[in-house]
Amino acid sequence: MLLNNDQLKALLLHSGLVHEKEFQDLVNYAKANGMDVEQAISEKNIIPDETLGLMIANALKIPFVSLGKLSINEDVFHIISEKFARRKKIIPFERSAEGIKVALVNPYNTELLQMLARKTGQRIFPYLATERDIQNAYHIYRKDLQKSFDTLIKEQIEESGDSPDDAPISKIVDMLINYAQQDHVSDIHIEPEEAHSLVRFRIDGILHDVLEVSKSLHDRVVTRIKIMSRLRTDEHLAPQDGKIHTKVDDEDLDIRVSILPVAEGEKIVMRLLSSASGKLSLSDLGMNDRDLKKVENAYSKSFGMILSTGPTGSGKTSSIYAIVKVLNTREKNITTIEDPVEYRIRGVNQIQVNTKTNLTFASGLRSIFGEIRDGETAGIAVNAALTGHLVVSTLHTNDAATALPRLIDMKVEPFLVASTVNVIIAQRLVRKLCENCRISFITNEEELLKSLPKEIIAKHYIPTGPQREIRMYKGQGCKICHFTGYKGRVGIFEVLEITSSIRTLIAAKNDSDVERLKRSVSLVIFQQCSRPAFPLSIL
Asked: In this structure, are residues 128 and 63 in contact, taking their beta carbons and an 8 Å threshold?
C-alpha cells in the first residue's frame, strides 16, 4: 500500500468520490477481510480501478500506466519469466535505447529495480499500475492451448523420434490443469468423439472448446487421470468418482473427478476447487449491505435454520462456507456433513458422506447439518433447530418463497417451519462485464422495455434528458475475456427474513394451501427486495 489510510482518506474526500462514512465502512471491511483499503475499494468497485491508480500516481508524482490499453511486443514481456512476473507483480511493457519501462504495484521497490537493471544491463523506468491491471496482463505470456499442445508434441518427436502417440501424457494433463487454473476455469470436460477427443473449459458458466487431442491419446489421458485420482484403471463400463489434490502457482487445488462411459469411450469431467474460492465472504460474493444485515441477524442467533436455495451451480455452497467461516470461533463446535467436502476449513469438523459405511445425510444429520434432500433429513434438521442448534443447509428450490412449501411437502408441520426457519437465501450467478474491454453506450426507455418490466425500470433506473436516455455498458470482447465481453461472475440474491407476520402466514396454512402460501410470501419478498432481479450494471 503506497498511501497510508489517512493519506488515502484525504485524497478520496478531496476528490468527492467517497464520503467520510463510506471510507470508514471501507476501513472496517478491509480489516474484517484481512486486506488493505486500496484492495477493499477495488473489490467493492467504489471507484474504477484505473481512476484510483491514476489519483494515487498523481498524488505521489510518479508515472502511471494502464496496461490494458497497450499492445506489448513479445520480445519485451519475455525479458522476465511469467513465474517471476507473477511472484513480483511486475510487467515490462516498453523497451528502447534509453531503457526498459516496467509496470509495478510498488514502484518504490528499489531492490527489485536494481536486480532488473543488473539482469538486463539497461536502465529501468518504473511505472505504477493497479494490481488488477497487472493480473489481467499476464495473458500476454500465454500461448493458445492448442498451440502449446502442438508444440509439446512436436518437441517430443524432435527429441526422441517417437510418434505423436508416445507423447508424455503426464505433461499433457499437467498442462491442462495449469491452463485451467490460470483461466479461472470451474470445470474441464474431456469428451471422446468419433475422430478425436475434445477438451472444453467451463468459464463463468459457459463451455468453450479449447483443444483437440488425437483419439489414440484419449485412453492414455483417461488412465493417467484415473491413477492421479486413485480410481480403477481396469474399469471401463461403470461410472467412477475420485479426487486429486495438487498445487498450481503455490495455490492448493482440489479436483473432483467424474468418469462416465459414453458411446465413444470414457468422458471425464474435472471440477476445480481452488483454496482461494473458499475464502470469499458474503460481500465478496455480491450480497448488498441490506441483505447482509438480514443474514447477520440470522446467524447471530444460537438456534434456528438458515437455508440457501437455488439450482445446481448457483453458488449455494460458497454462501454456506462464507457463513460457516464467520461462525467458526474457538468457543463453538461446528460439524458439517458434505458430499463432497469442497473446501477445507480449519477448526471445523467436516465429514464426507460415505454410503458404503452407511454414513448418509440422514444418519449424519442426527447431530449435524448437511443438505436437506428428503423428508427424513428435513425432520432431523428441524428438530435440531428446535433444540438449540443453529442449522445451516442448502435446499434445491427456484426461489426463497418456494422453500417454505417445499419443507411442508416434506411432511414438516407448518408450525415447525414457522418456529425454526430464520432466513432463506435464494441466489443465482451472473456474468460481469470485462473491465478491460467495457464500453458505454446510450439507449432509451423504449429499448429497455424489451428486456425488463416497466416497474423495475421505474424503481431502479431513472432516465434523463428529453429522450429519456439511459447510459448502459457492454463488453466488446478481448483476449483477456476470450472475446466474450464477460469476465468473472457475481451473485444476485433474494433474501427472505422470516418476520412475525410471515411466521403467522406459515403457521396458518395446511398442506392444501401451500400454493397460496407461496403467493403470499412472494408478495412480501417483492416488497422487501432492495435490488432488481437482474441489475443492468453487471449484465
From this structure: yes
Grid coordinates given for 339:
458430499
State whether 43 and 113 are in the same domain: yes
Domain's final residue, options 84, 111, 136: 136
* 282 plus 270 within the same structural domain: no
- Strand (E) positions, 81-153? 90-95, 100-104, 124-128
Give dist(CA 295, CA 223) in Å, integer: 46
Structural domain count of the chain: 4
Question: Element (H or E) spanning 318, and its range?
Answer: helix 316-327
User: What is the per-residue pLDDT across 231-261, written as a single tens digit (0 to 9) for each?
Assistant: 999 999 999 988 888 888 767 788 889 999 9
pLDDT in tens, 85-141: 888 889 999 998 899 999 998 888 889 999 989 888 899 999 999 888 888 777 766
C-alpha cell recorded at residue 354: 460415505
Domain span at residue 35 reads 5-136
- Tell me, yes or no, whether 482 lies in a domain: no
Is residue 54 within a helix (H) or strand (E), and if so which, with residue range?
helix 49-60
The pTM of this model reads 0.69
In the structure grid, which three cell numbers stand for residue 263, read together?
458411446
Looking at the structure, tell me whether residues 315 and 464 fall in a common domain.
no
Residues 252 and 305 in one domain: no
Rounded CA-CA distance 445/458 in Å is 10
Q: Are residues 158 and 100 in the same domain?
A: no
Peptide bond before 164: cis, by omega within 30 degrees of 0? no
For residues 44 and 26, the answer to whether their CB atoms sit within 8 Å is: yes
From the CB of residue 210, how many other CB atoms can be counted at a distance below 10 Å? 22
219, 239, 274 — which closes off a domain?
274
Interstrand relation of 100-104 and 206-214 (parallel, antiparallel or unpaired): unpaired
> DSSP secondary-structure letter at 246?
E
Q: Are residues 30 and 116 in the same domain?
A: yes
